[in-house]
Design brief:
The protein is of the alpha+beta class. The chain has one domain. The protein has a four-stranded mixed β-sheet, with helices on one face. The chain starts with a helix and ends with a strand. About 10% of the residues are buried. The model has no long low-confidence stretch (mean pLDDT about 95).
Length: about 70
């Protein structure tokens, strides 16, 4: 997938999720919660490699990814 398509996919995901919604990534059993007001995902559970990849890609569309 090209970078452009990946960023498009990231934006579409953000648009589909409601504020406070949960996103589960099946391949790594990662779980994230979105805060649209603060433009960030809270990484609840998952592998460090998934955290880093999510942080990188969603950072490119203006969303931070943090661990709590």
């Amino acid at each position: 997938m090209t970078e452009e398509k990946t960023l498009e996919w990231c934006n579409e995901l953000v648009n589909r999720l409601e504020d406070g919604g949960i996103w589960k990534i099946p391949r790594s059993n990662s779980v994230l919660k979105i805060n649209k007001k603060l433009k960030r995902f809270i990484f609840i559970l998952g592998e460090d490699s998934e955290f880093e990849a999510t942080k990188e890609w969603f950072g490119k569309i203006g969303y931070s990814v943090i661990k709590e």
